[in-house]
Amino acid sequence: MEGKQVDDIKYKDGGQAEGAKFKRWGWCLLVLLIGAMVAAAAGLTVWKSLNHFKKSSAHHGIITQKYADALEVALQFFDVQKSGKLENNRIPWRGNSALQDGRQQGLDLSKGMYDAGDLIKFGFPMAFTATMLSWAILEYGDHMNTVKQLGHAQESLKWITDYLINAHPSPDVLYFQVGDPDIDHNCWQRPETMTEERPLLQVNASFPGTDVAAETAAAMASASLVFKKINSTYSNLLLTHAQQLFNFADTYRGSYSVSIPQVQKFYNSTGYGDELLWAAAWLYHATRDELYLRYVTEMNGEEFSDWGSPTWFSWDDKHVGSQVLLSRINMFGLEGMSTEENLELQMYRETAEAFMCGLLPDSPTATSSRTKNALIWVLRWNALQYSVASAFLAVLFSDYMVASHITTLYCSGKFFTPADLRNFAISQVCNHVGINTEITSLHNS
What is the mean pLDDT of residues 32-53? Predict the structure, then answer.
């Protein structure tokens, strides 16, 4: 909110982020967001329509080869992490693996992607990866196509969603983990030759997992938009799974890391309200069903949204992601919206704006969570994910401003422009690749 000190940006768990449960790193988030954000930093086009993400006239730019190369390398990392029977394999030292995953339950869970440096498939961060990859494709897919990377991005997305579909064999059952992390982490081996047991973990009506089910619903809903025009049958299948998973998540509320305590030391969830909002927001975009818009506003907005209290975006906390995604509705306008819905969407936007103000180094409410070279630095563990996620959201928000003809962002008495947000994003990229140079204003580029 206006005047909000960004030192107040906090974690969902109240700041208790040290310890083993946060030492697991969502590798997919880092890779995806770097890829998406470096592409955006090259001067890409925002997609304006609320329901179809059609192209607007914002930010047409020249694709810089070094950014195109970085995007290609980033997307190749998904190929490195693939499980299953490989198709069109671009990584010569990778081969087929985990072909029997899921067979003990009569399922084919051979696809999906391994986690950071191990052979476990963790569904919670993997689903978030799919959601973010979908968002990047929807917003910047035309320029991914220009540098011949769109097909690779879509194929990697489908590799994950194929797995997620098979992991959801019935409306109220979702398999969210393949493999035993304790055994796996004590044995370094190639996936092609692994011999360890591959147990499965699931959430269901008796052992609910609202957070992981809702995140998977968000992944399915956002991906359904990606494939809507290129594979309508697959898109419809994804949307069916998304709606079933959302109903399951909302009906049987409970955190998966409470139902299944052994997951707490790997990808512990500190709440599920943000995932419900995140999933409903994506389902609204995918279906245009007014029910999902009411869900995030008058029905659950006040309870789950944390309006006025910005938090850092991550695989565990989607609050600001939802705030930015719902801001686009408020910024572009929507006919027939009720006064209450519009006021609550404005609250989402104002909280997103407070987050943006915190990122800008010259803002009166600038966060102190940054290094002397201006890199966002929140935690020792997972350090770059917060910087990259913040930069990605800053690029999106700046493009939304341009597309909706909003020229300034007000931060406690000082005004900033979309270019200021993009300059912040570029500064983070420069830090990531070791270029600590002053950023030239985009006004002059």
Answer: 39
